Every structure is written in structure tokens, then in C-alpha cells.
Amino acid sequence: MNEGPILKVSHLKTYFGSKGGLFSKGKVVKAVNDVSFEILHNETFGLVGESGCGKSTLGRTIVKINEPTSGSIEFEGRDIVKMKGAELKAFRRDLQMIFQDPYASLNSRMTVGEIIREPMEIHGLYNSTKERDQKVSELLETVGLKPDHIRRYPHEFSGGQRQRICIARTLALNPKFIICDEPISALDVSIQAQIINLLQRIQKERQISYLFIAHDLGIVKHISHRIGVMYLGSLVEVGESNSLYREPMHPYTKALLSAIPIPDPRVERSKAAVEISGELPSPLDLPSGCAFRTRCPFASERCAKETPQLRQVGDRQVACFLYEK
Amino acid sequence: MERSKEKGMAVTMNPESTNLLEVKHLTTEFETEQGTVKAVRDVSFTVKKGEILGIVGESGSGKSQAMYSVMGLLARNGVVKEGSMLFDGHDISPLSFEGGLKAYDKYMQGVRGNTLSMIFQDPMSFLNPVLNIETQLVEPMLNHMKISRKEAREKAIELLRQVGIPSPETRLRQYPHEFSGGMRQRIIIAIALACNPKLIIADEPTTALDVTIQAKILQLIKDMQRKSGSSVMLITHDLGVVANMCSRIVIMYGGKIVEVGTADEIFFQPHHPYTSGLLACVNNPEEEDKELQPIPGSPPDLLKPPAGCPFVDRCSCAMRICKDYMPEMTELSPTHRCACWLEQKKEVLA
């Protein structure tokens, strides 16, 4: 096993410009605002946050669907921000992505065989169509579908089966790293568990690292080794998943955890809710200092003036002045 | 409810009854190009006065269509084939309604938004984007209650305050796009409460919202229910949500009810293999991580539903009889019922 992280993101910023009108200046959405973290080999890193916190943009920036505004993304020690041409193509073989909506991410005019074969053809893997088809059958079996599904079209499959096809397509290139962007939130509860178990089995068999993006902390805690919590473009807390769940430190993590509905009436009856007031501020107009201060029960004057940085506190990284002396 | 007497409705008032809604043998079908979809098949349940009843099922289990049948809001190709529905002593089934479909629609318009109101999943498509909040809040009150516009406006302000919208006087003049998703859902709850309904049907009210907002909206529904004493039917796929909210739970699968019980009975003594399967495949973050136990396979095709138990193809305890015959409901306790041949077998052996 290689030493060091497989992915290292430092001070990454992705901004989207919004065009100004005749009299107004254009505003900037800071979707990802100075984010740094590392993912190790064979590790699952969970990224949670509410809608609009920038978690999907972060994932899309790492696969270079969105261009970063500044910062660096190192994949196995090489900076991918500057990559172009053949080098970029080679890198894309190692890093693949599974999307949220399995209805939108499969071409309905292609058969399952064509869909899974396409990445191999683009990257020139294997010599003949016959060899590729052989590989497609193997992949279908890996993800729990039948080899004779190869000639069928996506509309003949249910949501869970479609997500399996998507997973087979990402595995076609033997990637080292897969970004899963809400891979189960479009699926039914009884199907979600099937996909989660499949992802875990594939990781064990093929030593793949995952960046698992979701809004459901319960599932993220189950699948991840470490979790990062995002709020309005910034990471507010990063830690080992069990420890982060048991003892959340950042006020936002605490609020997020207390809001998860637990499937156990006894726990629900005894649970004390942590109140957070107000709603998510507009990302066009971020509060000064700590982005969470407008809703935080512990906010002080300092929170408005300075922006807290992620700092090591015990086994955890937290961006909050409460944990600074 | 004088309206119903004029129309010659069969009124069977029973003030002693604790049941607000009684649905018996409801069967709803949809005509499609591919054939007849049997979405709801022989479903019977009751909603008691002042309770929150949870209806849990996956997509395609028939949970939403069963509710739309009750509300008279089925899509044009949907028909209630069988069943009786008794709401607050009035028969609201389209089958027993005298005077044809048009009269039924008109009658249901008087019931909906009045004594029976709804909260839907998507707050954006529920609100009319070109009308301000005031119009949308006041309209149902003017339609259903003998009240002046001024009184209705005052009540609207009071309702907005109750559902936690700050400075309601100014917000009343704003349009839906000026509100966030959570705020819009609060407005919809205010509209649902406007005419003091006896029953509120909430169809996945928080699925489109973030968890922190979801927690607040659920708390709000709970508080409002407690204050007004009305009954709530909460339709959801999320077991975590019903654990928090409901006193009784109905589990639906493949167009049928497979198990009914109190929250404790469903969570701690599930009897139907589907219920226990569903509980085993959701992760309870409070417990130590263990491997999830998914239910293999996928739900049945309701174009040609199995003759027997809908769960037979995915059930680990399936027997020969399960494929051909649907089991009757077995009473396990006064509050707990389950439709499974395993229970019948136990009875025979005992």
C-alpha cells in the first residue's frame, strides 16, 4: 500500500460569478470557500451538509467538471488543477464519479452493454469488442445483475438496478478513487441498503477510496471512516466517524446530529433537541467572520470579526473559537 | 355539514365513535396504456380522533394513492372500484354517492380544505406563484367559513404567527418565491389549519427539506396537532420520522396493508417479515455499526400483482401457500394486526 494520502485538497475555492445588471455589480457565490482535507488510500471520507453548502460542487471540482478558482488538488502527489490533454485523460481513468439520479445519468438510447463498454473504448482498454464484452459481463455480475442484461435498455430497469449499472460503468476503468454524489437518495429504503452493501464490498475487493457525499448523516456514519461537515462552503469539523457522532464539537454539527430522526421511538422520546435559530443565509451574501454565527447560540463578537480556521483539537479538526484558548 | 343533508347524503352519525375516518376494503385502480395498475388492493384502516397515524411504505406501495382516493383527488385515469369511507360520520366514498361524479366532486370541494385538509411534499408546486400569501391564506376561509375579509385577514396573521413566521403583517403581502423552502412549508401548514380541520393528511411533508428544517417542521405539526386536537395522517417512507411522530403505524407493501400497530409494537415486536426487513435495512446511528441487512429483489409489478402475499418473492420465510393465497389479518393484540401466513400457522399449532 502506498504511503501518504491519495487525494489532498488544499485551500480550494470554487466561485461562481453571477452577472450584474445595468446598474448593479455582479455578485459572487462562494460555493466552496477555502477547503482543505486529505483522503487516504482505501478510505471512505463522508461529506455531509445541507443543500446549498457546496458539497456537490466540491465533488465536481475534484473531477474537474467545475474549474476551481484557486487552490490545489493533488491526486497521488500530482496537481490536477493544471493537468491538460493526455495527462488529464489518464487521471480521469483513476478517478470516477457516481451521480445521484440514476434516471438522468444513463443514456436511454444505449443498451446496458454499450453504456458500460463506452469508457473502455474511450480509454482504449482491451483489444477487441469481444474482450470488452467479456469484461462487461464480469462487471454486471460484480454489481449483482445478470450477464444477459447486456442487451437491454435502461428503461427496463428499476432505480436500484440502474444505480448498479452506473456503478458497473464506473468500475469499467478500474478506478482507484470514486466520488459518490448522493448515490442512494433517489432510491427506496429497502434498496438503499443493497447499494450501500455493494459499495462496501467493492471497496474491500478492489481497495478503492471513496468520497461519499450525502445529506443523511446516519448513512454517512455507517459507510465512512472519517466525516467532514460542511456549512456554506467551508468545512467546520472533520473527524473519525464514530467519535464525531458520539461527541460532536462544532455547534453546527451538534444541531445537525440532533435533527436526525432516529428509527427508534424510545430514543426519539428522550431526545433533547438542540435549537438552531433562523435559516441558511444566502450564499451570495455570506456573513462576515464565521459563516454559522448568525444561527449559532454561542456566537460572540470575535466570530463576526475573524474567520475561524480548522484546527486540531484532540482527535478532531474543528473550526470554532470555542475550542481555542 | 348541512350541505350534505341538502344533497341527500347518507348520514350515519355516531357521536360515541372514536374513529374519525373509517376506510374499509378500499380498492383503487388506474387504467394505463400497459394495462390496469392495481395500486390499492383491499385496504382497511381507521384514524382515531386526536391521533397521529403514520402510513409507511416505499414508492409504489399505494400509500399516496390510498389517501388520494379518500380525498377524491385521484388522477383522471384512477377509479375507486370498491370500498366504503366514513369520515366524521359522513360517507365520502364516490361509489355510494348519489347524483353522479360531478356532484361528488362538488361535494368533496366543500370537504377538502374545510374539515379535511392536506399538506403536500413539494411546497413550491403547491403554492400559486402569482398570488401573494394573503390571497392564498384567506381564500379557503372565505370559501368555507362565514367570515368577513377583514376577520379572515386577522386570522391569517394569527396563523402565520402560530407557524413561526416572523413579522407576519409584512410577509402576508409577499409572494411564494420570496420565502425559503422551510418557510413555504410553514405557510402550507398555516393554509391547512385555516379552517380548523378535523383531519390533516400530510403526504411526505418534509421529504423535500433539509434535516434541520425537517426537525422544526415535524415539531410544528406535532404542536399544532396537540393544540387543535385534530387528527393527522402522516404518509412517509422514513421510519425515523414516524418513530418521532406517530402513536400508531400502518405498514403498506404492494398495494396492501401488511401490518398495523402502535409505534412500540411496530418497532420492537414486528411480526411481518417485511416490517422486520425494513427495520433491519435502515441504519440506526445510535447503535454500533453492523452490516445492513438489505431485502433482496425489488417490489412487485402492480400491473400483474401476485395472487397471494405481495412480499412472497422477497420473503425469506415464504411458504408454498404464500404464492397463491393472501393471508387474512391476524389480531395479535387489540392494537396490533398482521397479514402473514406465519401468524396463522402459529395459531393452528397453538
Task: Give structural notes.
The complex is a heterodimer of chains A (325) and B (350). Chain A has 325 residues and is α/β, with parallel strands linked by helices. Helices cover 33% and strands 22% of the residues of chain A. Chain A has helices spanning 55-62, 85-94, 112-122, 129-142, 159-171, 189-206, 217-223, 241-246, 251-259, 265-270, 301-305; strands at residues 7-18, 27-39, 44-48, 70-75, 78-79, 95-98, 177-181, 209-214, 226-231, 234-240, 311-313, 316-318. In chain A, strand 1 (7-18) and strand 2 form a beta hairpin. By secondary structure, chain B is an alpha/beta fold. Chain B has two domains: 18-115 and 199-349, P-loop containing nucleotide triphosphate hydrolases (Rossmann fold, 3-Layer(aba) Sandwich), CATH 3.40.50; 127-194, no CATH class. In chain B, the strands form two sheets. Chain B has an eight-stranded mixed beta sheet, with helices on both faces. In chain B, helix 5 crosses helix 6 (149-162). Residues 1-13 of chain B have low confidence and may be disordered. The interface between A and B is large, with 39 and 41 residues.
